[in-house]
Structure formats: C-alpha cells, structure tokens
Specification:
Blueprint (H helix, E strand, L loop, with lengths): L3 E7 L6 H7 L7 E5 L6 H7 L3 E4 L5 H10 L5 E6 L2 E3 L1 H8 L8 E11 L2 E2 L8 E8 L3 E3 L8 E3 L4 E14 L2 H21 L6 H18 L6 H32 L1
Parallel strand pairs: 1-2, 1-4, 2-3, 6-11
Antiparallel strand pairs: 4-8, 5-11, 6-7, 6-8, 9-10
Helix pairs in contact: 5-7, 6-7
Length: about 260
C-alpha cells in the first residue's frame, strides 16, 4: 500500500465508478469519492466497494476538486475522474514511488476510448496529464470547466510508466450530450474572462477544428471513431463560440 489518497468527483456514474475503484485495489487504503448529487446507484456501489463516500454540492470543476482534495487522508493526491481506471503497469509504478520529494509532480499517459475503440490519433491521441501531486505544493484553480493545476515555485515534472484508461463515452448520443454541456460551460467561463466571439469564429473555427484533428492530427486513422471525435470537437467549438456571442450581446444590451 502507498500513502496516496485517490480522489474522485462524480455524479450518476453507476456504469463506470465500479471499474475505476476496482482497478485501484491494493494501491492505497484511502479512496475518496465526492458525490455531487447522484440519483442512480453510484453511492451504493462506492460504499459496497469500500471507498469513502463524501457528499457536497457542485461548484464547478476547480472548486469541487479542491473540496474533494481536502477530504484526503494523505498529502499525495492521485486525481481521477469516475470513468478513469488504471492499468497494472501504472499501479506498479505508483507502488514503487518513494514519494519523498514534495516538489515533484507526475505526468501520466492516457488511453482514451470511444466505446470499445482505443483512440490513437486525433485530439485524444498521445494524451497525458499531471494527476499525481502533493497538495501542500499543488492544487486546482477555481475554473468552472477545463480546470488546471497551480504549482508552487520549483515544481519538477516526472513521468510514470503505465496508463490511465479513460472510457470517455459509450456512444454518440452520450458524446453529443457531454459536448453540449462542456461547450456551454466553457462559453460562460470565456464570458467571465472578458473574451469575445464573432460570426467568423462561430462558423469558421469549427471547420478548422475538424481539419486539425481529423486531417493534420491523423484522426482518420482511427476510422469511424476518429471521424466522430473530430465532428464532436467541431460541434463543441461551434457551441462554445455561438453561446459566447449570445452572452457578449446580452452584456452589451445591459450597458
């Protein structure tokens, strides 16, 4: 066992949370799941698998992740989403870490899946994120979406062997729903930051987004799944800038 706290935030993840918790068996005695109002069987699954269930209201991704981190038993935090499990190689890497230097953070490679298809190219290919850190030196910013980590001076990035297995969505309908949700949230974030949209961005940026991920980042090599992902990225870009344009106009009309 390692002195690592695994921290997960979730809501209505009964189909994924069990696989995630089971992949962590033997790694730590502290798996914290912060639930934000699940109405399905998520909370029962968490309890049955021996993880520690906490419940709090949703305040956006950054603030909610920071709340979850405060429940942790240990200072070393492995942050996962409810649909992210770890493979055996990553578990071994984590078990063998000395965890003696608080100024180190650890970057982990991801394998992203659309349904059962592993996405090797496009936006989801060659994906990696910093997910292991010491909370005394690192924490999340307070962004409502696309949150990021804030590092103390002197932080050094190390790489771990193994993968986080990210089961992004099961089908196109779920993908479209998540894309709409995140597009709208990011538009609100941009509006708060004073960013502007335009008709050119609403209609041209999605085209460039599709070409970037499907052609230039070789998404076509993932077949039908690669096409779907590029189309959804294009849709996300359109929703984000269309909603931001609405918010810009609403703000201007109030002046």
């Amino acid at each position: 066992m390692q002195k690592i706290s695994v921290v997960i935030i979730c809501k209505d993840e009964e189909e994924e949370i069990g696989r995630t918790i089971q992949s962590l068996a033997g790694l730590t005695d502290d798996i914290v799941v912060l639930d934000n109002g699940s109405t399905d069987n998520t909370k029962n699954i968490v309890r049955d698998l021996g993880a520690r269930l906490e419940e709090e209201s949703w305040e956006g991704f950054g603030k909610t992740k920071n709340k979850a981190t405060r429940f942790a038993k240990y200072d070393w935090i492995l942050n996962l989403d409810a649909d992210e499990s770890i493979d055996g190689e990553l578990k071994n890497s984590l078990l063998n870490l000395p965890l003696q230097d608080d100024d180190e953070v650890f970057e982990i490679k991801f394998k992203n899946f659309l349904g059962d298809t592993y996405l090797r190219f496009g936006e989801w290919g060659n994906d990696r994120h910093i997910r292991l850190f010491n909370r005394r030196k690192v924490n999340w910013n307070e962004a409502i979406v696309h949150e990021g980590l804030i590092f103390a001076p002197g932080i050094r990035i190390k790489k771990l062997k193994g993968f986080v297995l990210h089961y992004t969505v099961k089908n196109k309908a779920e993908f479209a729903g998540k894309t709409l949700k995140y597009g709208l949230l990011n538009a609100e974030k941009y509006a708060r930051e004073g960013k502007r949209s335009s008709w050119l961005r609403v209609y041209l940026a999605p085209v460039f987004t599709f070409l970037k991920y499907y052609v230039f980042k070789l998404g076509f090599l993932d077949g039908r799944a690669g096409f779907i992902c590029a189309k959804m990225s294009s849709y996300y870009t359109h929703i984000k800038y269309a909603r931001l344009l609405e918010l810009n106009k609403a703000k201007q009309n109030k002046i």
